Amino acid sequence: MSNILNWPDYRVLQVSELEHDYQVHAEVAEPPRYCPHCNHSEIVGFGRRDEVVMDTPVHGKRTGIMLNRRRYRCQSCRKTFLEPVPHKDDKRQMTNRLIQYIERESLRRTFSGVAEDVGVDEKTIRNIFNDYCERLEKTLKFEMPQWLGIDEIHIIKPRCVITNIEQKTIVDMLDNRNKPTITRYLSKRTDRDQVRYVAMDMWQPYRQAVETMIPDATVIIDKFHVVRMANESLERARKAIRSALTPQQRRGLMRDRFVMLKRRHELTDAEYMRFSGWTRNYPEIGQAYELKESFFEIWDYMTRHQAQEAYYAWLRQITPDMKVHFDPLIKAMGNWHDDIFAYFDHPITNAYTESLNNLIRVVNRVGRGYSFEALRAKILFTDDFQKIKKPRYQRQRIPEGAMGRMPFYGVAETGPSTNYGAEISTLVRAIEAGRL
Ligand SMILES: [Zn+2]
Fold it and tell me: Over the stretch 254-288, which tens digit does the pLDDT of each residue have?
């Protein structure tokens, strides 16, 4: 090691250690030989200038290079110039390695944390990070999935998450869930024809964007979104029934919401007893519950035909009183009929829905601390989160005598790696461990 900077092209004159800082007084070891303007070699000293070039922290302390930089004048063109500083960033008063350090650290920590650690203001950290993201955006391309998911995630406002259902990864995050935004995203992806199935919530702009940009893909509504509407219908019914009761009667319905949202097989004996009492006194409660349960049961059928028949039978048993509460569900079933029943031809795994719901839950928790752009970059560009498949192992024999010969380099692998994007389970673990 040559000096504290570990760079022989600097001459370190003195190192001062303060409580939080190192000040490394230094000068450039090799003076320049030519004028940068005209390449002439007759140059003479023309004073010096003090500059601070920030560097990576040393032993946990902020470190700056207090540079005594030489100025020269060219005897031929008469122009003056400062000597070049090795390892310094072109735009900023920082070393290249500090820039790299900030780029890496700001994917893992908050901007203010990094700013405090290196002794640079937060705005500069943010700018360095934005430049870095722009660069990454150009080089990093995630595989376009065969099974694409379009989902909603709340980060300050509703955003759109593009997922790979089979790989359980995030492929991208879009600022909002409007049709032009999704259309623009899909139009930029020239490999969009790889998509065969698109799973989504019942949100028209998603469907319209997909129909415009990937007309051959089959749209499927995840059953999770549909059965959730049955729970909402039940809730409407329950509240209406309750509002017609006296305060005393209402007291008899303790924890009714909790009990009624449970599936029948999940009820404990005690809950079942209480529930039976309620339905004896208020038959509408029983009716609403039965409708919710029999709607859920439609999703237990194995074929699309059976499920459709079960749905029509379900529709026939709804009384006009109950229809009021279940109307939004019935309307959605009408508007999205084919896309909802497409689920039975191409069921989406529960594992995917579960992992996505976990993600939505944890992102809601951390989302407040960051801007959307920063959160998106952290999620997409942190390489520890990415799910990468290496090319297949080369099983062919290496030809006799080819071993050790130079041209063999790089031929041993059969193709490029595939990057599927940020793995949801890894991301959830990282967020839960406070690593975002
Ligand atoms: Zn010159």
Answer: 888 999 999 999 999 999 999 999 999 999 999 99
Angle, helices 96-108 vs 372-381, to 10°: value is 100
pLDDT tops 90 at residue 123:
yes
Task: Say how many Å lie between the first and final Cα of the chain, rounded.
Answer: 35
- Tokens 């139009």 appear where? 187
Q: How many CB atoms lie within 10 A of CB 378?
A: 25
Residues 6+ apart with CB under 8 A from 307: 298, 299, 301, 341, 344
Q: What is the pTM of this model?
A: 0.75
> How remote is the CA of residue 48 from the centroid of ligand 1, in Å?
18
Ligand 1 centroid – CA 84 distance (Å): 15
Q: Hey, what long-range contacts does 138-141 have (CB within 8 A, 24 or more apart)?
A: 140/380, 140/381, 140/419, 141/419
What pLDDT sits at residue 410? Answer: 46
- C-alpha span between 432 and 436 (Å, rounded): 9
CA of 82 to the centre of ligand 1 (A): 12
